Amino acid sequence: MKYCQTCLQPNTRPNSVFSADGICPACDYFGRLKHVDWQDRYDILVDLLANSRRRPGQEYDCIIGVSGGKDSTRQALWARDRLGLKPLLACLSYPPQQVTERGVDNISNLIEHGFDVVLSAPAPGTWQRLMRHSFDRFTNWARSTELALFASVPQLAIRYHIPLILWGENPGLQLGDLKTLGRTGYDGNNLRYMNTLAGGGLDWMLEAGASPSELIPYRYPAPEAFDAHGLQIVYLGWFLGDWSLVNNGMYGTAQGLKIREDTVDNTGDLAGVTSLDEDWVTLNQMIKYYKFGFGRVTDYVNEEIRLGRLSRDKAIGLVEAYDDACAPGYIASFCDYIGITVDAFWQQVRANANPQLFDIRADGSIHRRFQVGVGL
Q1: Which of 80, 191, 357, 358 has the most CB atoms at less than 10 Å from its CB?
Q2: Would you say residue 315 lies in a domain?
Q3: What is the domain range of residue 104?
Q4: 165: which strand partners?
Q5: DSSP β-ladder status, 87-92 and 164-167
Q6: pTM above 0.90, yes or no
Q7: What are the tens digits of pLDDT across the range 12-56?
């Protein structure tokens, strides 16, 4: 395990390749942003949109997937108020046991801002069974739900005959998931190859007992379907010079966004602005840490280091303190939902912790073998 020479990105991030100088793809991209002509990028966007305006019989200019969070709030308002578009907002609705009141309020906030919002709500029984199977098989409860989350937007774009999908950040450039890179910095049609969707075939779901009809919400449209309907995903974040986790959070709160109030010790959410529609993501970030050696705090501090707002030394302290943060209450509510005990949860997590990065002690506690900022 090695760290980027600039930030705290480890080379264990899936689909990431460091340069010969030991720089991660995200830092390499950020360095090149110093030479970007942002007006030129804006002009590219205007020209792109001029060719994608509503056609006869088309009610919306574009579709934007929203959770009501910081990124989607900014995208929706910027697309409408700056670009003059009429977007349809698409929201995948979680079951009542998972969605937070904060998340519901944030979707209501977008509706109150005057947007049309269409909700996609997969059958809750199937959702619960697949979540349990995802955890049992992959120690990643979100393996199935993320398929539904990502599939819902292009599925609805096809149903509503909307050829343009606006997405947020480019994960290839801004996070380092290189398999998502398209023909241009804003071409998002390779989003289907990101690590979140990797291995996204449905065979394992069928093996879990789900029927083909139950899996309709989880099917990401094939490239042939994109071509047949002329679908194009555009990364809106590529056109915004101030796109960042904290900046988008500040923008959203100014527009009525409700943020997380729990402590960093319980969530690892340094600013309280990520994944606001549900809290079990905190478990997934903790598990990601035990698998790959980085979690939610690492993603936070890396952006702040690149922006010059946080030193690498101070960032190391934050990562050491909070990268595996997850309140026991979140774990207990998740276990109750999928029908396992908390002890069974931890047995599964310990069994899947990366043995090269972590030691499991006799009392069951998990301890890192690497030094943050240095590696192994």
Answers
A1: 191
A2: yes
A3: 39-239
A4: 63, 233
A5: unpaired
A6: yes
A7: 998 889 999 999 999 999 999 989 999 999 999 999 988 776 676
Report the pLDDT value the prediction gives residue 194, as an integer from 0 to 100: 82
pLDDT in tens, 203-231: 999 999 999 999 999 999 999 999 999 99
* Domain membership flag for residue 29: no
AA letter at 118: V
- Whether residue 25 is contained in a domain is answered as no
* Cα distances (Å, whole numbers) of residue 323 to 6, 284, 313, 318, 338: 19, 12, 15, 7, 25
Token pair for 136: 């049992």
Residues 51 and 114 in one domain: yes
How far is residue 66's CA from residue 41's CA, in Å, rounded to a whole number?
24
297 shares a domain with 267: yes
Question: In angstroms, how far is the first alpha carbon of the chain from the final one?
Answer: 5
- pLDDT, residue 53, reads 66
Q: Is 52 in the same domain as 125?
A: yes
Can you spell out the DSSP letters for 309-349? SS-HHHHHHHHHHHTT---HHHHHHHHHHHT--HHHHHHHH
Place of tokens 């990502």: 150
Q: How many domains does the chain fold into?
A: 2
- pLDDT over threshold 60, residue 319: yes
Strand partners, 278: 99
Evaluate whether residue 297 is within a structural domain.
yes
Same domain for 103 and 161: yes
pLDDT confidence of 139, banded at 50, 70, 90?
Answer: very high
CB 326 within 8 A of CB 299: no
112 lies in the same domain as 185 = yes
Backbone angles phi, psi at 233, to 5 degrees: -90, 130
Q: Note whether 212 and 281 are same-domain residues.
A: no
Token reading at 105: 């309020």
CA distances from 240 to 38, 68, 247, 271, 315 (A): 8, 19, 11, 21, 25
Contacts 24+ apart (CB under 8 A), 49-53: 49/83, 49/85, 49/164, 52/163, 52/164, 52/232
Q: Residue 346 and residue 3: Cα distance in Å, rounded?
A: 28
- Enter the DSSP assignment of 64: E
Using DSSP, state whether 283 is helix, strand or coil: helix
For residues 72 and 95, the answer to whether their CB atoms sit within 8 Å is no
